[in-house]
């Protein structure tokens, strides 16, 4: 790689540092750039000059997002916050349990141990053991491969955008609290229904993305239509727990409202207290369901 022909070809060297060999091209201008000049983008890398142009040409919505979300725009949040690790972890754990759940014999046993069934919250009425963890463990088991695949696809598509925007801890809190909200709504409306799946958490993510997108001035019409169509499909399909969808969406929206209202660094303690208070409120609601509803 040291022939005169190679050295004389400037396309083999960084255009900003002619002494540095590189074969990486800026995805915008297609000029060669070295490692120091590379800024990771959604696909490939871009050079400093193209990055300046991108920042200069930001839309009003992107500028509002930069002001409102810690001084950086949504497009750069993925680069600066790193990979969506929580999304990857949730995908891995849920997919593993979901695939194990498809194994005849073993799968049925695991699903029955983790699925949510409201009478397990009221042992004195149902003669069952007290197993409150089912409020959350139901998120990690599914009723079949299609059910698992659709939920994991939604988690992947939404999580890789929403997690860098919120941060890992807030994203995990959103996912789990939304899932809890879905289970609580099932306990309130359909206590005799056995439910599995991450749909409550997925609907919570969609609702949160809707609230945050509206807050930063983005066009959320398409997302609103998708949310409505998915909810309507579940409502008219007897095999789908629309109650979990409804509970997850409502609670996900509440989580997003708390985060939006306490987004500044000095408000972090209020954000934590708000999310903790919402969680406690859900547990209190499910703890004081009128006993007769379990017998219905």
Secondary-structure element sequence? HEEHHHHHHHHHHHHH
Tell me the distance between the termini: 79 Å
Strand content: under 5%
Strand order within the widest beta sheet: 1-2
Molecular shape: elongated
CATH architecture of the largest domain: Up-down Bundle
Describe, in plain words, how this protein is organized in 3D.
This protein is mostly helical. It has 2 domains: 4-57, no CATH class; 85-295, Rhomboid-like fold. The longest helix is centred in the middle third of the chain and has 22 residues, at 145-166. The chain has 14 helices and 2 strands, in the order αββααααααααααααα. The protein is elongated and about 85 Å long.
What's the helix and strand layout?
Layout: H1 4-8, E1 39-40, E2 45-46, H2 48-56, H3 60-68, H4 74-81, H5 85-100, H6 106-114, H7 123-126, H8 134-137, H9 145-166, H10 168-189, H11 199-215, H12 221-235, H13 242-261, H14 268-287
Helix pairs in contact: 4-9, 5-9, 9-10, 9-11, 10-11, 10-13, 10-14, 11-13, 12-13, 13-14
């Amino acid at each position: 790689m040291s022939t005169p022909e190679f050295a004389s070809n400037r396309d083999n060297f960084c255009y900003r540092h002619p002494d540095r060999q590189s074969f990486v091209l800026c995805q915008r201008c297609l000029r060669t750039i070295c490692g120091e000049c590379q800024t990771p983008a959604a696909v490939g890398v871009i050079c400093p000059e193209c990055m300046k142009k991108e920042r200069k040409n930001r839309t009003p919505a992107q500028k509002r997002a930069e002001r409102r979300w810690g001084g950086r725009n949504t497009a750069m949040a993925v680069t600066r916050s790193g990979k969506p690790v929580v999304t990857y972890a949730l995908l891995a754990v849920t997919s593993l349990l979901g695939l194990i759940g498809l194994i005849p014999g073993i799968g049925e046993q695991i699903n029955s141990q983790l699925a949510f069934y409201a009478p397990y919250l009221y042992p004195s009425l149902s003669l069952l053991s007290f197993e409150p963890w089912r409020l959350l463990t139901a998120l990690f088991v599914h009723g079949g491969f299609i059910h698992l695949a659709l939920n994991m696809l939604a988690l992947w598509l939404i999580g890789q955008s929403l997690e860098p925007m919120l941060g890992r801890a807030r994203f995990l809190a959103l996912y789990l609290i939304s899932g809890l909200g879905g289970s609580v709504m099932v306990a309130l409306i359909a206590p005799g229904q056995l439910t599995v799946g991450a749909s409550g958490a997925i609907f919570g993510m969609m609702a949160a993305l809707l609230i945050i997108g509206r807050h930063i001035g983005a066009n959320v019409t398409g997302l609103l239509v998708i949310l409505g169509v998915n909810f309507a499909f579940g409502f008219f399909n007897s095999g789908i727990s629309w109650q979990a969808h409804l509970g997850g969406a409502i609670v996900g929206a509440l989580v997003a409202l708390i985060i939006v209202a306490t987004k500044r660094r000095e408000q972090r303690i209020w954000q934590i207290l708000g999310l903790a208070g919402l969680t406690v409120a859900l547990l209190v609601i499910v703890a004081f369901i009128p006993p007769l509803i379990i017998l219905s």
